[in-house]
Design a protein that fits this description.
Belongs to the aldehyde dehydrogenase family. Pfam families: Aldedh. One of its GO terms (biological process) is aldehyde metabolic process. It comes from Athelia psychrophila. This protein has 2 domains: 202 residues, Aldehyde Dehydrogenase, Chain A, domain 1 (3-Layer(aba) Sandwich); 68 residues, no CATH class. Helix content is 52%, strand content 9%. α2 packs antiparallel against α4, α3 runs antiparallel to α6 and α4 packs parallel to α5. The protein has 13 helices and 7 strands. It is elongated. The protein is of the alpha/beta class and 306 residues long. The strands form 2 sheets. A 4-stranded parallel sheet has the order 5-4-3-6. A 3-stranded antiparallel sheet has the order 1-2-7.
């Protein structure tokens, strides 16, 4: 069995600090840089395949064919998938259509969580170590990996190879057992996880919704911003306060209006219809307007007459 060199406990907090400084440098905001680091993980495995096969034989007495198929090949394929998909996974997405916010172009943006921790198991020590790390880096995080001390040969090989391929302020390996792991868990991490592939990217990604109001929307509802005037208050009241249904006449049959409860007068119905039409043109939804109609109130649909 290969002797595993444990990371000194007193160095672990500084390693975490170095990784946090690496994240705060914002270098990983550059997608090309993320891809270069992810691709280096592939070359780390490919260049040292025989060394990993020997280590797996030492640790688990696993035949080379099984190690190739179950660990090495899976790692390379998984990380390459992450590499090729990175831009698509990181791209902002349009939020589900909602007529209340459509004019503001609601967008879901993918943001990294920070400095994250991966503690990997022993059964597939290459794939389940580097797979989650690739997803975390692809998402823009810096990573600390604590591989299993039960697979000492693989864990030591990772510790020796990672500094040769990956920048030290992006990815570090800490080896050890209970004392080292306890120290790691005492520290604050922005996330922990062990998924691979797209699940890893999603695990280490924070979703932030944004609204980008076009100028005409800000002008329309500009009264919500100070300084407040009587004119602004009148406009806000007209927009916010519901118009009351006709007062019931005692003794007369009451016929509810179809717009009762929506609080929109005819002029504001027209304003909303124009706004929805503008959004549809702007977001290229007009060609598929039938898919949007179900999200609109019935009274709006009837006014749009589409």
């Amino acid at each position: 069995m290969v002797e595993l060199v444990y990371t000194p406990v007193e160095q672990i907090e500084q390693i975490r600090t170095d990784l946090r400084n690496g994240f705060n440098s914002k270098s990983l905001q550059n997608l090309a840089y993320r891809k270069s680091q992810v691709l280096q993980l592939v070359y780390l495995v490919q260049d040292n395949t025989q060394a990993f096969l020997d280590a797996l034989k030492t640790d688990l007495n696993r035949p080379e064919t099984e190690s190739h198929l179950g660990d090495i090949n899976n790692t390379i394929v998984n990380i390459l998938k992450t590499y090729h998909s990175l831009e698509a996974w990181a791209a902002p997405e349009k939020a589900p259509f909602n007529y209340q916010f459509a004019a503001m172009s609601p967008t879901i943006r993918k943001e990294p969580k920070g400095t994250v921790l991966v503690i990997s198991p022993f059964n597939y020590p290459v794939w389940l170590s580097l797979g989650p790390v690739a997803g975390a880096i692809a998402a823009g995080n810096t990573v600390l990996l604590k591989p299993s001390e039960l697979t000492s040969a693989v864990s030591q090989l990772l510790a020796d190879l990672v500094p040769k391929y990956i920048d030290a302020d992006v990815f570090r390996v800490v080896n050890g057992a209970i004392p080292e792991t306890s120290k790691i868990l005492e520290l604050q991490w922005d996330h922990t996880g062990q998924h691979v592939g797209k699940y890893s990217f999603d695990t280490f990604t924070h979703l932030r919704s944004t609204l980008d109001s076009p100028g005409w929307v800000d002008k329309l509802i500009g009264g919500r911003y100070p300084p407040y005037t009587a004119k602004k208050l009148k406009t806000l009241n007209a927009l916010q306060l519901p118009s009351l249904p006709a007062r019931p006449v005692k003794g007369a049959a009451f016929k509810p209006n179809r717009a009762d409860g929506y609080g929109f007068s005819a002029k504001w119905t027209l304003v909303l219809a124009v706004a929805v039409a503008a959004v549809l043109v702007n977001s290229n939804l007009s060609a598929n307007f039938k898919g949007v109609l179900p999200y609109l109130p019935g009274w709006v649909q009837s006014h749009l007459r589409i």
